[in-house]
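Model it.
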Amino acid sequence: MIHKSRCPQNHPCPAIRTCPTGALKQKGYGAPTVDKSKCTNCGKCSRFCAYKALAME
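Modeled.
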């Protein structure tokens, strides 16, 4: 789950690099999106995000 209100949306999302399956994508500087078919719910992205904008469902 992406909490867009917590995401600054002004830089490349560094949490994308932590995703082992490539489930996180970002267009421009917008909030990232999650491809649920690729996401394994490992939680790496949510632990890495300093803004707590990424959360597991």
